[in-house]
């Protein structure tokens, strides 16, 4: 990324700003704005997230908020209620209180003499979520949003459940927020009351994983904040962004298809990162694109931002299967609208070991599969949060425990854009079952790179609101939608469909092993095919190189550690996936604050004993300065029986090396056809 220091406007930073809410609670904010805004007001861009603007996101914030300010905007970074240095307690995701607070912040902005009253919201992940959700409330002054790595449907397309299946990332994410919610405010900002605020958080934030496990079907808990309940509520312009290695690409396509107001979609090769920091590359000049977007919608600049394609995506070329990539080869392509009238759906029947050609007749045959628990060891993360090494590895490692269907080798280049679907006629031996469907690009040498996948809890075959158990011997027709994708396949390569009855540890397995019967003749693969060479490609303005303001200086005092280890003991038949993300210790040079973060995850099992699966996470977060030292450790263990989930959680808080708070939880949550 190229750092920029010269801008049209000289920027001032207001580091510690308090914003009052209607109930008297104050939120902590940092503001970057042009110096001349005191006499020449500017529009404001709001980002509200719970990740501590004073330290944990300070370096990232320093790259793009001053950049926006240098182009004539006020960049406002607010800690959510109960996070960072803000007052109050944070007790859940996207609560009514959070959205009301956002409206209060927008009202406060409109009252500032340096703001024109025209505002946008921008954010990645949590900040992208609440930008969409606040937009659906249509508060005065919110004129446009940029939502990155977010979703319109909190149940079907978020970190908790996928296709009605419980994701292990539900545990991982709950553990992340368990750790973050336990962090203290900074005494240098809030003063002597930091300790009281800290202990309020330690006792009041709750155990979020329990809340999420008590809502295993799509109910009002998940409908809240899911703008898909009423797309028409969002009327302001929306720029929706994601990456193919991210977990949130599907929502970009749905937003473009269902919103009626001005909208644009952008999907690159990136993981869960802003595109100007995008990994895998190529990263792009995203901040330049954002400035053009805000110029058009908040300053009425007559640029051509809305004259370009509605959807711009990175068409990925074939790559060997690796858990991390520095760059993904490909090219930018555009579609003038979505759904695109140019995309053609091709139906391919499934027969034994083979994906037949479109229109080919195949016979009826019963194929059976009962997958070992080891299928899924090489699946990677549901979402590549940090880009490596959490991408799926060679799928041949998984295919031995799956039903596999291959196309013939392609004789011409073949491009897929959109969400493939696999339609299956099947029967199950048990009342609760799941199916995982993987789509892989198979090279001439046999290496298989997963390019998409989908999951379905078969008790949710008729919807996620009212699941129904399966009846042994009955036949069911189900449709499994795979994640959206853009993939080019060269001549000589094949597509592979692989079906499995488990996908652990990406997905929590069913209560007991299940044998599925899949019937050919009526089962098929439906591919959204983008024509190659049959139409003139849209002329695309090239993206600029990524740039931003110089990040604040930090010193790495203790190096970090990153590991992703799969192990198997062939004497005791124990297997495990262990993940370490240790950022070491860094010092913020301007404040002298030292911060340490370490996360450890372990997913284990014994043989094919479905009752042995276990997820365990441990977090340590520590803060230290010359006159202050505080840290927390958290631990969460999730296990299950055929009838229940079992949660054990621990929280320890330390001040100057002495334990000052201890909390433990033991909870049992009944399984609800999961």
TrEMBL record:
SUPFAM superfamilies: alpha/beta-Hydrolases, Galactose-binding domain-like
Annotated GO MF terms: dipeptidyl-peptidase activity
Alphabetized UniProt keyword annotations: Hydrolase
Pfam families: Peptidase_S15, PepX_C
Domain called Xaa-Pro dipeptidyl-peptidase C-terminal: residue spans: 291-549
Gene3D superfamilies per the UniProt record, alphabetical: alpha-amino acid ester hydrolase ( Helical cap domain), alpha/beta hydrolase, Galactose-binding domain-like
Name under which the protein is recorded: Peptidase S15
